[in-house]
Amino acid sequence: MSRSINLAVIPGDGIGQEVVAEGLKVLSAALPQETKLETKEYDFGARRYHATGQTLTDQDLAELKAHDAILLGAIGDPSVPSGVLERGFLLKLRFAFDHYVNLRPSKLFPGVGTPLAGSPEIDFVVVREGTEGPYTGNGGAIRTGTPHEVATEVSLNTAYGIERVVRDAYTRAQARPRKKLTLVHKNNVLVHAGSLWTRIFEAVGKEFPDVSTDYLHVDATMIFLVTQPERFDVIVTDNLFGDIVTDLAAAVSGGIGVAASGNINPSREFPSMFEPVHGSAPDIAGLSKADPSATVLSVALLLRHLGYDAEADRIDAAVQADLAERAGKPARSTVEIGDALAARVAG
Amino acid sequence: MSRSINLAVIPGDGIGQEVVAEGLKVLSAALPQETKLETKEYDFGARRYHATGQTLTDQDLAELKAHDAILLGAIGDPSVPSGVLERGFLLKLRFAFDHYVNLRPSKLFPGVGTPLAGSPEIDFVVVREGTEGPYTGNGGAIRTGTPHEVATEVSLNTAYGIERVVRDAYTRAQARPRKKLTLVHKNNVLVHAGSLWTRIFEAVGKEFPDVSTDYLHVDATMIFLVTQPERFDVIVTDNLFGDIVTDLAAAVSGGIGVAASGNINPSREFPSMFEPVHGSAPDIAGLSKADPSATVLSVALLLRHLGYDAEADRIDAAVQADLAERAGKPARSTVEIGDALAARVAG
Ligand SMILES: CC(C)[C@H](C(=O)O)[C@@H](O)C(=O)O
Ligand SMILES: CC(C)[C@H](C(=O)O)[C@@H](O)C(=O)O
């Protein structure tokens, strides 16, 4: 655990500004007095793109790299063509900083609504690969715009890339009470990538004899996530399947209002980035209606990553208690929720 | 509408035998007396694979081609390595017979259980592309079995292939009361394929000015399928996204016990194939526990494809009435449900 935290803060677009302010409030309240928190704000996102045409330059990356971690609000605005900020900023950062573990916990806290009948027990975490698969920008098109156009997308999968994320997932599974790891893929159709994932999953498993394992096709996973979500403990999966699985996981476990995530470089060669799963929600931006809980839970993931486990636990507990008390009460503003969480964490 | 139906029947593995028997019973009961039904049974699946090593030969394809349509129970058994029958039979048939429309309706019938709270209104149909995308078997691996292995999967997308399935989906949307079509893709990341799908979706839409359209990323689709499934009318999507979306759709709209599907070649150059979405369920095979409703609903899709709309309507109504009467009653056997449905359809 470091005696100081040098944090890059990227509020971004829409509600990003509002939720990040509350995240920082709770972070300050949680840190031990002797820990020095230094933050530097970066104005990435739609505003900068419109002003300069830039999304993320080499110079930006060099500056960001000098931090211990990054806290992001949300990037994206309808005024920017679809894909520009996603690829030019979000994915660029994941690849540049080798964020090969995309960590997305799904926990249905008591009192929180779920679209599922009977409020099942949900407490699992998805370890999504973040630097390979169909996300590498490989692919192209010929005869574009003609009736003979052919477009390809190439999923790239390496033993190196899969092994490190699979090992990370086993380690996380081993540290949890149930010690269970599920590989999600589609190895009956995507045979080359699927075979590589399956073989590595089995080989690395030998190093973790106390972790029980199983395999599910991604389509069957959809069914279990809504009929039997309690069966999952840790899921490890590829970049695209992970994108799909984690949105469904967020939806069934209380919605994206409480879904946190980390884009992690476990080797610590690069700073990791923590962000709520929700987007910039331009329709409610500036209205102080956004729930900062997902950002605050992302701050807890950030603290855990930096070794502040006790502080992260206090934040998780504060959010859980706050959520449990909400039922039947009038909705509070973004700031009110942030204040309440900071008070709980400090007290 | 033909005066006779020449049907290839593939009971297949596990519960396939049992459910197909009931499907044929209801089909016979539904057909007008003057329509001659000829059926020929084919023994594809695990048994044949073990006996001969064959899954589907050129000779088999030539024989199947001579029929008006194919009714399939289920293919797959744990004794056969994962992928062998899927690719060697199911996918081979889809590609050989150019089944470019994979039609999967999702309707939550009154009285049927759903994992979703509040039993929302669900009545939509997914038109999944069946002959392209990441399902074409393109891809490979180098340095297999070494720490330097690299495996690829290539998604192939053609203007020709997308346009025909998109047009089919618009036509189906136009024939429904709500006339709404949603394109599901991930065009902010899979830019080459995504751009092609999006451009064709918009261009073909000009021919259907009365159909309203929207676009959703596949990850956001997951959220809406569990929080707002009533927003969907017709969905058109790529082969892999369709695989994932339709299993979730089946799960929320009553489970795979009632999920029907058609692998359709709209040009009628090849026979189309109809099958329940569920698999061979070896754990309950031979116990007369399987619900034949999904197969019976697939028979209705088959009849509609061949122009027997009134007969298809009668079958749909019979299944709906039967499902509505089940609540609180003791479970019936596969045969009892089939008998009840046949009686309703005939009566
Ligand atoms: C915005 C988009 C590029 C991103 C992804 O697909 O990874 C998002 O959906 C996510 O899950 O973080
Ligand atoms: C068995 C498998 C090849 C198949 C698919 O992926 O299409 C199945 O999941 C389906 O949806 O029909």
From TrEMBL, chains A, B:
Pathway(s) annotated for this protein in UniProt: Amino-acid biosynthesis; L-leucine biosynthesis; L-leucine from 3-methyl-2-oxobutanoate: step 3/4
Site description Important for catalysis, residues in chain: Y135, K186
Cofactor(s), names only, from the UniProt record: Mn(2+); Mg(2+)
EC number: 1.1.1.85
Binding site for NAD(+): G279, S280, A281, P282, D283, I284, A285, G286, L287, S288, K289, A290, D291
Enzyme class, broadest EC rank: oxidoreductase
Bound cofactor: record note: Binds 1 Mg(2+) or Mn(2+) ion per subunit.
GO biological process, one term: L-leucine biosynthetic process
Protein name: 3-isopropylmalate dehydrogenase
Source organism, top-level taxon: Bacteria
Assigned protein family: Belongs to the isocitrate and isopropylmalate dehydrogenases family. LeuB type 2 subfamily.
GO molecular function: 3-isopropylmalate dehydrogenase activity; magnesium ion binding; NAD binding
Keywords of this entry: Amino-acid biosynthesis, Branched-chain amino acid biosynthesis, Cytoplasm, Leucine biosynthesis, Magnesium, Manganese, Metal-binding, NAD, Oxidoreductase
Span of domain Isopropylmalate dehydrogenase-like: 6-341
A Pfam short name: Iso_dh
Listed SMART domains: Iso_dh
Positions that bind substrate: R94, R104, R128, D219
GO CC field: cytoplasm
Residues binding Mg(2+), per UniProt: D219, D243, D247
Localization of this protein: Cytoplasm
Coiled coil region boundaries: none
Function, as annotated: Catalyzes the oxidation of 3-carboxy-2-hydroxy-4-methylpentanoate (3-isopropylmalate) to 3-carboxy-4-methyl-2-oxopentanoate. The product decarboxylates to 4-methyl-2 oxopentanoate.
